[in-house]
Amino acid sequence: MEATKKTEEEGNENAEKVVEEEEFSASEIEYVSYGGEHHLPLIMGLVDSELSEPYSIFTYRYFVYLWPQLSFLAFHRGKCVGTVVCKMGEHRNTFRGYIAMLVVIKPYRGKGIATELVTRSIQVMMESGCEEVTLEAEVTNKGALALYGRLGFVRAKRLFRYYLNGVDAFRLKLLFPSPMSQSSLPIVADTDGSHWHNDHIPIEECSENTDILYLSVVIFNIKSI
Ligand SMILES: CC(C)(COP(=O)(O)OP(=O)(O)OC[C@H]1O[C@@H](n2cnc3c(N)ncnc32)[C@H](O)[C@@H]1OP(=O)(O)O)[C@@H](O)C(=O)NCCC(=O)NCCS
């Protein structure tokens, strides 16, 4: 039994190596928005295997049934290699988007797939009238923090022991320019200043993004993504 398991594991590792070694061009990756129940097991499989937080099927359904247009999947030769799951709605007088889950499987990382998935969701949020986008990421998740930092997200808050595994989270935020303010950048657009006061981040832990937070609001330039 053990031997069989080991052989299977070796098989999986080899399969990953084959993909790693095999060059694929970005144009081979196909992006589709959530298309129905047949996509659900693909999303769940990816998220369950890569994110620390466990989600029930009800959570997945909540997102993809209510906001199917905000969830995307990436396929390579028929295989699902990445996904993003989001929602949007009113929050304290602001219409905002929220990125709930983002995963790209290991052999496909570093090729811009997560950036493309997130960009597609953000584009729909923007077109739907969202004023901002938020999400949480583990403070230890360097990859995700770098990715969202590149897209213009800033650290709005540190949430103590936010995850079930006991790790703190950063709440990241991206503001879209309001139609009134686009001509006079940069602006201070957040009416709820408490979002922006970060009690929890010691100054030495602040990244360049956090510094920006104290100076001005970073405006998301959709043309750059
Ligand atoms: C985080 C994750 C989604 C990134 O996916 P990806 O497809 O590799 O991301 P991209 O190729 O679009 O990366 C874009 C940029 O993000 C940054 N980045 C991504 N992963 C990084 C890493 N591990 N270390 C440092 N920077 C990283 C880089 O700046 C990168 O640009 P570059 O390759 O030109 O330097 C992927 O690593 C993953 O699925 N991780 C596990 C699940 C997870 O942590 N999800 C996020 C929860 S908030």
TrEMBL record:
Residues 27-177 form the N-acetyltransferase domain. InterPro entries: Acyl_CoA_acyltransferase, GNAT_dom, NAA30-like. It comes from the Eukaryota. Belongs to the acetyltransferase family. MAK3 subfamily. This is N-alpha-acetyltransferase 30. Coiled coil: none annotated. Transmembrane segments: none annotated. GO terms for cellular component: NatC complex.
